[in-house]
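User: quick one - fold this with AGV bound?
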Amino acid sequence: MLTNKRKVIFDHDGGIDDLLSLVLLLTMEDIDLLGVTITPADCFLEDATESTLKILSLFQRKDIKVAKGNLYGVNPFHYDWRAQPKMVNALPTMLATELDTSALTSLSASDFIIQQLQESEDKISILMTGPCSNLVKALETHPELKDKVDEVIWMGGAVDVKGNVAMHNHDGSAEWNVYWDPYAANNLFKMGLTIKLVALDATNCLPIDMPFLKAIAAQRDFPLSELAGQFWAATITSIPSYEYTYHLWDVMATSCLEIDASAIQFEKMELDVSIQEPNQGHTIKSPGNGQWIDVAVSADREKVLDYVLKKFRRGF
Ligand code: AGV
Ligand code: CA
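Assistant: Sure. C-alpha cells for the protein plus AGV:
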C-alpha cells in the first residue's frame, strides 16, 4: 500500500505498559505499523503473544503481522513480574475476544525485522519497549540493513539517575531493559544508528499512582480508558519502593512518535554500556569513547499526562 505515513516496527516484551503502548500506537493516524515483534523478557512468550493478537483484533487490525522472539538475555526478569501480564489476559475484555492466530508469522522476531527492512523501499523506525536483542541480532547478521533504519526509539537506560535493578551482584545503576541483555545493548551503541533513548531520567516523573489511576477512571466511559485503567490497576501491588514502583515507561517512549516536541526534553550524550559486574547494563557517559545518543533527560509531567488521557478518550 502506498502511503506517506512513517513506517514503524514495534518490538515489545509483553509487560503491562508494553501492551498499553501497542494500544496507543494503534490510535496514531500518521503511523504505518508494519509489524509487532515480541521479546520473551518481562513476560512469558505465549501470554504476550495472546495479548498482542487480541489487542490487534480489538482494533480490527489483524492485518498487522506478529513475530515471536527466540532470544533470551543473560539476566532474566523476576518471575513474578513476568507473570503480571497473565492478569491482562484474564480481564473480561480480553477473555471475550476470540484468539485468532492468523497474524502470526513463522519467522522469528529478528528474521521478521530483517525481512521488513529488506523489502521496504522507505526507511523504517524501530520502537523498542523491551530489551534490544532482536534488532541487534538482525543488524549483526545483516549490517547492510543499518541504512534502512530511520530512527530507533528505545525505552531503556538510566544516565544521571539511579537504575531500577536490585540484585545481589549489582550496584543498582542499570535499568532493566538494558540489563537483561547488556551485550546486545553494548553492540547497539556501536552501530552508528540514530537513537532516542527514553531513560529513567525522564520517566521517573510519571509513577503509576492513585491520582493517575483516578484520572483514567474518571473517563472510563471511553473503552480505551476502561481497558487501560484495568491494565494499570494490575501493577499497583508492586512493592512501593523505588526499584519496584511502576512508571509510565514504555508509554512515554511510544508517545515520542507523535507528542508535541516540547513535552519531552532530549540532550545529546556520548554513551557506552557496561558489560561487567557490578554495574552490568549501566548506560554510562563516555566522552570521546561512546556513541552520541539523544537521551530523554526530563519530561513535562502535565503535558505527557494530558496527552495520554486525551488519547485514551476513544473506543477501539
Ligand atoms: O524498566 C522498565 C521496563 C519497561 O519497559 N520494564 C517494565 C516496562 O515495561 C521492567 C521493569 C522495571 N520495574 C518493573 C518492571 C516492575 N516493577 N514490574 C515489571 N517490570
Ligand atoms: Ca517493557
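One thing worth noting: Strands lie at 6-12, 31-38, 65-68, 124-128, 149-155, 195-198, 264-273, 283-285, 291-299.
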